[in-house]
Design brief:
CATH architecture: 3-Layer(bba) Sandwich
Number of helices: 2
Distance between the termini: 13 Å
CATH superfamily: D-tyrosyl-tRNA(Tyr) deacylase
Strand content: 35-45%
CATH topology: D-tyrosyl-trna(Tyr) Deacylase, Chain: A
Length: 150
C-alpha cells in the first residue's frame, strides 16, 4: 500500500457538486492499494499514520500526532499512486489492485485507522470521480509505502 499524507487545516471531497466529506485540522490520506497488499499492510500503515508526530507543539516543534491534537483524518482511494511511468508517456496501472481485492482492503484500512484514532474517519467514495480540495498546512506532505516500512 502506498499513501500520501498531507497535514491540513481543512480538506474536503466533492462528488457531482456535493460535498460528501470534509475535515478541519488533521490529515488528508491518499491511499493506493497494490494487488499483493494484505491486511498487515493496512494495519501497519494505520498505526504509523495515527502516531506520526507532524503537528507542532507549544514550542513550534513537530512533536504531536493527529491523535494528540484531536484532529481528523480524511481518506481518499487513489489507484494512480501505483502508476508506472517506465515506458512511454502513458502511465500503466497494472500494479494497482482490482476492485475485488482493493475494496475490502480499503475498508480494513479505514477500520484500522478508526481503531487507532478512537473516532470515525472521513472518507471519499471508492472509484468515484472526486474533486479533492485541501489547504496543506506547512506544507507538510509525506509518502509511505508498506513494502519499504521506513
Amino acid at each position: 500500500m502506498r499513501v500520501i499524507i498531507q497535514r491540513t487545516s481543512q480538506a474536503s471531497v466533492t462528488i457531482d457538486g456535493t460535498v460528501v466529506s470534509a475535515i478541519g485540522q488533521g490529515l488528508l490520506v491518499l491511499v493506493g492499494i497494490e494487488g499483493d497488499d494484505i491486511v498487515d499492510d493496512a494495519q501497519w500503515l494505520a498505526g504509523k499514520i495515527v502516531q506520526m508526530r507532524i503537528f507542532s507543539d507549544a514550542d513550534g516543534k513537530m512533536n504531536l500526532s493527529v491523535k494528540d491534537i484531536g484532529g481528523d483524518i480524511l481518506v481518499v482511494s487513489q489507484f494512480t499512486l501505483h502508476a508506472s511511468t517506465k515506458k512511454g508517456n502513458r502511465p500503466s496501472f497494472l500494479r494497482a489492485a482490482r476492485p475485488e481485492i482493493a475494496i475490502p482492503l480499503y475498508e480494513q484500512f479505514l477500520a484500522a485507522l478508526e481503531t487507532e484514532l478512537g473516532k470515525p474517519v472521513r472518507r471519499g467514495v471508492f472509484a468515484a470521480d472526486m474533486k479533492v480540495a485541501l489547504i496543506n498546512d506547512g506544507p507538510v506532505t509525506i509518502s509511505m509505502d508498506s513494502r519499504a516500512r521506513e
